[in-house]
User: What shape does this take?
Amino acid sequence: MIVITAPTGNIGSRLLSLLVEAAPAHGEELRVVVRDPARLPGAVRARVEVVTGSHGDPATLERAFTGADAVFWLVPPDASLAPGEGFSGFTRPAARAFAAHGVGRVVGVSALGRGTPQAARAGLVTASLAMDDLIAGSGVAFRALACASFFENLLEEAGSIRADGVFTDTLAADRPVPMVAVADIAATAAGLLLDRSWAGTGSVPVVGPQDLSPDDLARVMTEELGRPVRYRRQSLDELRTALLGHGLNAAFVEGVVDMKRAKEQGMDSAGLEPGTGRPAPAGPATTFARWCARTLKPAVLAAPEAADAH
Assistant: This one.
């Protein structure tokens, strides 16, 4: 039995689709933990066992982890909480339940940076790595998917790209950093969840085929979208003010700012080493150009009303 948390999210929905197709050939049954089962596609809902509730709730976990061999663990972002409470606080009941129910293997979504000097003060990343330690300490076999920044973050800029041909971040325009498509994260997770041969604890870097700077992103977007796209660098102070203006928890906002600062200082690239070079992807790695053509372009070219509804 494989249990999938956050099955309607960006990563979880793709993972669930992959597992629904592959699990029968591996003799695996699937169970999902979801607050609102109606958000699951009907064809998928008919092929999985559904546990309704939050995977941060101990009573829900009792039902979800009974008889479970493997768990996909993803903490949903909560901008109303400080990072430590959002990650480790949410995960603590699960860590106890892993041990209590004899769960064998856990695959979790985490971040690059472990072992780097920047990771000690990297906000959300620091909290994510502490969550990994909590899970590993439960005694399960554990693989943390050490993910680069997602291509999908750029979907938040679709409106600005559509209206003004501009996207914004805090990196220096010429600083290349690892990035990855969500589909590749889901594929890596599926491979690990279906593989019963691994043991122990460790991290699996999940990155795209090449590092990309904001200037690189602008160039590729210009080519793929058929319209000029340029990058505007935002200061960390500007970012902080904007996020606080949206009413986010002040500690969460500082966690975002500290993460952005650590990435600017090279945390993600340093987190890929030492000595092993770029990791081999679980399958064909998605290039940024391919992702733009398949995912960003439809979002940018959509009518504003349709994009907002999506």
